[in-house]
Structure formats: C-alpha cells, structure tokens
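Saturday, quiet lab. Running sequence design on the structure tokens for the scaffold JK sent over.
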C-alpha cells in the first residue's frame, strides 16, 4: 500500500497543520517528515487511550492489510483526521500499513511483527529512503560558512557579541558570516572559548557525533527531551550559544558542519585524543540540571545512524543490488561497501548478544579500508596499542568467524584482507612485515577509516576534489559525490602514479569524465594522489614517505 495513492490533498494539509510542516512541501516530502520518529511519537501521544488500545490490537493482529469496520474507524479519531484510514467499501475501511509499521518501530521498538508491504508500499519506502539519502548527503556537505549563512542577522550578531569577536556596530550579514568563519579557523582560540561554555549535555552530544564517524547523529532525540523537561521550551535552550551544533528541527537531526568537525577532531588529537579531552572537559565543565543529561541519554536511540530506514528494506535493497552488480564491483564501490557495513552494524546494535562486536567490527573494517591487508600479528598489535585489548591470532580468527562478516573482511593465510585483495592478488604472496606501516595515534583516528575516509582534508586535496567534481559528466550532485568517492577509492589502490593517471584516462574513455589534457591530468593527479593513504605504501601518503 502506497500512502500517496490513497491520501487526499485535504488530509496532506491536515498533516501539515498538525505537525507544523510548511505548506509548500509536496505530499511525498510531507509524509517523509511526518513518518520521522519524533513526529510518529507525537502523533501517538496525542491519541486518546481508546485509540491507542485500538492501534495496539491492530498491530497485534495477523491481518495484512488491516481492514476495520466503522466502529474501529470512529475510535481511531486522530488516525482518521490525518488521513491514514481509507474507505474500501460502504462499511469497511483500511488503515495505512506504513503508518502502523512506523508506530511499531518508533513507539514500540518493533515489539510487534511489521505488516508486510505490497509492491506499492515497497515503492513508497524506496522513495522515502531516497529522500533520506539526499538529506544526509546535504548535511554531510554543509560547511560552517554554509550553516552560518542560514542564520538570521540577529543570531550572527549574538554570536559576535557573546564570544567578544571584534566587529563594526553595523555589519552586513555576509561580512558577519565571513568574520565568524575566519575567526573560528584562524587558530584554536574561539574553539576553546566554545568549549568553555560546554555543559554535560553538550559534551555528550559532541561525543555521540564523533562516535558516529560522520558529522551528524539522528539518534539524539532533542525533540523528546524538550517535550519532557518543563524548563525547556526549544532545542535552543539545550544548545545555548553553541553555534557549532546545527539542529534541524524539521527532521530532528543534530549535526556539526563537516569542516568544523574536522577542525575539532584535529584539536582533540593534538591534545591527547578523545578520552583525554572528555576527561579534561568533565573537570572544567559548566554545571547543568542533571535531568537534561539523563533525558538525552534515555532519548538517544540505540540504532544505526539511519534509524528511520527500515533494516529489512535496506537488507532487501542490498540483496537486490548484489544480484545485479558483479562481485568485484560490489567490493570496489565504496558506497556499496559502506551500505553493507551499516547493515551489519544495524544487526549488531539491535541484538543485545551481538552489541559487544560493534567496536571490534569497526576496527577490523577500518584496518582493511586503511591498509587493504594486514597480518594477524599486525592486527594483534593494533588491538593492544589502540584498544588496550590483549588478543591472540586465534582470538581474532574466532571473533571474526562469530561475527559472520566475510562479505566485509576476509581472513586468509594469517592475513586480514579487504575482500577485493584476493581478486587482485594472491594473498600468500603478500609480504606484511610488522614495521613500515602507518600507525594511527589513537583508536578514534583509526575508526575514521571505518567510514571510507581515505584522506585528511587539506587545501590541495580539496582543490583536487573540486577539480574532479567540475569534470564529472553528471548533473545530479548526489551521483557526482558518489563518483568522486569511487575515483578516490580507485586512486588509492593504484600502485603508482602512472597507474593512477591511466585509471583517470580510462574514466575519460568511458565518458565519465570530461576530456582533460595529459599535462593537466598528471599535474592534478600529483596534487591529489600524493595526499591519499595508499595501500601500496601501507597506509602512508606519498608525502609522508618522503620524510621517513
């Protein structure tokens, strides 16, 4: 059942009014927002007890689709008002399947069995998932300057005043944006000033985002904590002058602009790593009502980052993808590999017996992303040095076998391998001495590579990525970004610069890149390729090897 095929325009307006969703949004965009966790919880909590009991009974039934009579329809007043009950004949009605499944997921934590969706319903899920991907992609590429530009002039002036940034009494919005942005990245002074105003809840939210290995966390339910705490009126009461946090109220997602987060992580690494930073902050932090922090902890969902996407739908999508895409292509495409990893993490996080594997899995996954291959002896060393965990080679083999993750990492001939390695080389011919590998300073640095980040953003690499985007034959920004990641992955497994240039030439021949002269191509490859962590250099960049 596809909600879009049944719900009327009048009911879409009703949903928009009830949830304060802008009228300019399309029916699909409206449903995308309405089906988010915080809105589903809000809708359910606004139902009277009679309707809530009806919903529970309907979820507990084995009916799919769920057909009800007039009496049940009249009991489910809010569901009817919002358009989630449809007339099928004179005396029978049907309750929207996706609406019921979302209540089961977000209100009852999948206590009941989800109703099976027909082809139309699966199409709706695909459409909603696509909007999720577009949303998260936009968040991941929002810079501090982009975010500041969305603020009102008064908010910018408040930031300037609060942090005592010298500025003219009358300043244009664009100048205020540039001034705050430039001051922030000039040195660590403004960042340390922001940290001085952190509270326990601020530290908790920052840590959650850092652990997510991206620049957002949609498991922190700020909407719920604001609703539960009488002293809080809006999310701004929790964030309070901390302009680094970008809270999207419509989708209930908390993020930090990607370049600001990179800057923060550099600061943390320069000062002893995450644990040292947190310990220091906890001793110098501003006081706060403990109920706020406890509320945040209680309302932080123990799910993967894309918790609004059904686990079953992702799994089915990946299975379909694997059927269509050749095996080598699955492992050579970083986006497909990342989706497989997220699905695996979903399974671990939603199974109490398997939750212990979340960090070890990320470590094994990151090692294969960073190095391509590593001896089990090397893995034992990294586990002890970065994770303070004593393991034998047999312990590692047994743990990986228990995880059942052979689509993502492979153990072969006492080596831990990226799945593409056996397809490109004979693993028993790979030399892996313990010395000569790039070694991350902290566990958090290693875990960066669990998110397919094969580089540290710097000016030259940013210029190279911009060059790639400008020369990709694709109008769609999402597809462009996908192609950029694909190119960066292939460049980093190139054994030398000549192969990197040849790979780019092949992309031009395949009509994926615009024609580029050999001289310009070599110059650009030199700029970008030398800053990537290469498998052929065991995780080092070309520039780093020059100083070894």
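Result came back. Writing it out in full:
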């Amino acid at each position: 059942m596809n909600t879009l095929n049944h719900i009327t325009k009048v009911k879409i307006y009703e949903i928009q009014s009830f949830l304060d969703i802008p009228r300019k949004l399309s029916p699909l965009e409206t449903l995308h927002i309405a089906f988010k966790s915080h809105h589903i919880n809000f809708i359910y909590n606004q139902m009277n007890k009679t309707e809530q009991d009806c919903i529970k009974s309907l979820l507990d039934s084995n009916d799919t689709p769920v057909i009800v009579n007039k009496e049940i329809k009249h009991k489910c007043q809010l569901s009817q008002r919002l358009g989630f009950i449809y007339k099928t004949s004179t005396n029978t009605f049907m309750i929207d399947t996706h609406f019921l499944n979302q209540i089961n997921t977000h209100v009852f934590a999948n206590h009941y069995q989800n109703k099976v969706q027909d082809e139309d319903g699966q199409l709706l899920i695909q459409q909603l998932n696509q909007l999720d991907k577009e949303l998260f992609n936009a968040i991941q590429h929002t810079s501090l300057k982009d975010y500041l530009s969305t603020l009102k002039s008064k908010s910018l002036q408040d930031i300037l005043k609060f942090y005592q940034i010298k500025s003219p009494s009358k300043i244009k919005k664009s100048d205020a944006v540039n001034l705050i942005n430039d001051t922030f990245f000039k040195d660590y002074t403004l960042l340390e000033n922001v940290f001085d105003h952190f509270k326990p809840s601020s530290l908790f939210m920052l840590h959650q985002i850092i652990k997510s290995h991206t620049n957002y966390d949609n498991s922190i339910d700020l909407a719920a904590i604001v609703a539960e705490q009488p002293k809080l009126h809006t999310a701004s009461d929790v964030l309070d002058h901390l302009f680094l946090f970008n809270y999207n109220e419509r989708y209930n997602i908390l993020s930090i602009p990607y370049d600001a987060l990179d800057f923060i992580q550099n600061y943390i690494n320069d000062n002893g790593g995450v644990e040292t930073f947190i310990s220091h902050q906890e001793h110098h932090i501003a006081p706060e009502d403990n109920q706020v922090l406890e509320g945040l902890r209680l309302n932080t969902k123990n799910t993967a980052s894309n918790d609004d996407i059904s686990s079953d739908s992702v799994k089915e999508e990946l299975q379909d993808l694997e059927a269509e895409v050749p095996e080598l292509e699955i492992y050579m495409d970083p986006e497909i590999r990342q989706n497989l990893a997220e699905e695996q993490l979903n399974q671990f996080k939603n199974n109490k017996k398997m939750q212990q594997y979340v960090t070890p899995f990320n470590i094994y996954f990151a090692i294969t992303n960073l190095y391509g291959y590593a001896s089990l002896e090397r893995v034992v060393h990294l586990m002890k040095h970065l994770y303070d965990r004593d393991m034998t080679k047999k312990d590692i083999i047994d743990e990986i076998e228990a995880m059942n993750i052979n689509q993502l990492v492979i153990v072969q001939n006492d080596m831990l391998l990226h799945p593409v390695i056996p397809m490109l080389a004979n693993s028993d011919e790979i030399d892996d001495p313990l010395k000569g590998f790039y070694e991350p300073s902290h566990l958090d640095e290693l875990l960066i590579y669990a998110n397919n980040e094969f580089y540290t953003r710097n000016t030259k690499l940013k210029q190279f990525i911009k060059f790639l985007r400008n020369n990709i034959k694709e109008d769609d920004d999402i597809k462009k970004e996908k192609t950029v990641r694909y190119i960066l992955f292939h460049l980093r497994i190139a054994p030398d610069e000549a192969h990197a240039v040849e790979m780019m030439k092949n992309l031009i021949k395949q009509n994926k890149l615009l024609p580029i002269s050999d001289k310009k191509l070599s110059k650009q490859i030199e700029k970008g390729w030398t800053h990537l962590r290469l498998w052929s250099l065991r995780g080092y960049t070309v520039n780093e090897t020059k100083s070894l």
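Notes for JK: The first helix runs from residue 3 to 6. The chain is about 60% helix and 5% strand. Ask whether to fix the surface positions before the next round.
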